Amino acid sequence: MTNTQIREISPEVLYSDGGFLAVDSRMISKLKAYAKASERKRCRLCFHANADAIQQEMLIVMHKSSYVRPHRHFGKSETLMVIEGAADALLFNDQGTVETSLPMSPPDAGDMFFYKMPSGIFHTLSFRSEWFVFLETTIGPFDMSQSSHAEWAPPETDQPAGHTYMNSLKLPAA
């Protein structure tokens, strides 16, 4: 086996060289430290070597104080598998009404632990634990024009407004 090299793009993004990479709890702790230092309180380790890779796999850590603006992807689905923590996956209609609230946590916790999000559905995460750690996959290459952010939600650059918005959401009855 060769040693995989990891390079820092920013406090929020690390890339492997695309070689063999196995992670343990020490890597998750390292990603949490990066996330604590980042403005948006998140960090991802990309297992693929660059944004042009056809297969995009990311180990992502999000702090409870992070806000993810509702967004959707075009022409591609994404999968999410929970490793640690708890969050609600929120799915919206095009007008911004939450249509589905799906509790998510690791397999042994009793909630959903995996989803496949089809193309075109607005979605976000609402965090219930201090840290939420998950594996996300999609197809590449990464192209921002293949995603859109909800116009009815605050931008991620305004975290306080994002938290106010998230707290104001009316969730569907269980």
Task: Name some characteristics of this structure.
single chain; mainly beta; Jelly Rolls; seven-stranded mixed β-sheet; three-stranded antiparallel β-sheet; 12 strands
**CA-atom Rg in angstroms:** 16 Å
The level of helicity is 10-25%
Largest sheet: 7 strands, mixed
In the CATH scheme, what's the topology name?
Jelly Rolls
Total DSSP helices: 2
Q: CATH superfamily assignment?
A: Jelly Rolls
Second rung of CATH, namely the architecture:
Sandwich
Trace the largest sheet across and list its strands.
Answer: 1-2-3-4-11-6-9
Question: Low-confidence parts, pLDDT < 50 over ≥5 residues?
Answer: none
Strand content: 35-45%
The coarse overall form would be globular
The number of strands is: 12
Structural class: mainly beta
Q: Order of helices and strands, N to C?
A: EEHEEEEEEEEEEH
Averaged pLDDT: 93
How would you describe this protein?
The chain is mainly beta. The protein has one domain (6-168): Jelly Rolls. 13% of the residues lie in helices and 39% in strands. The chain is built from two helices and twelve strands, in the order ββαββββββββββα. The chain has helices at residues 25-37, 159-168; strands at 6-10, 13-16, 42-46, 55-63, 71-73, 78-84, 87-92, 98-104, 114-117, 122-127, 131-139, 147-149. Helix 1 links the parallel strand 2 and strand 3. The radius of gyration is 16 Å and the shape is globular.
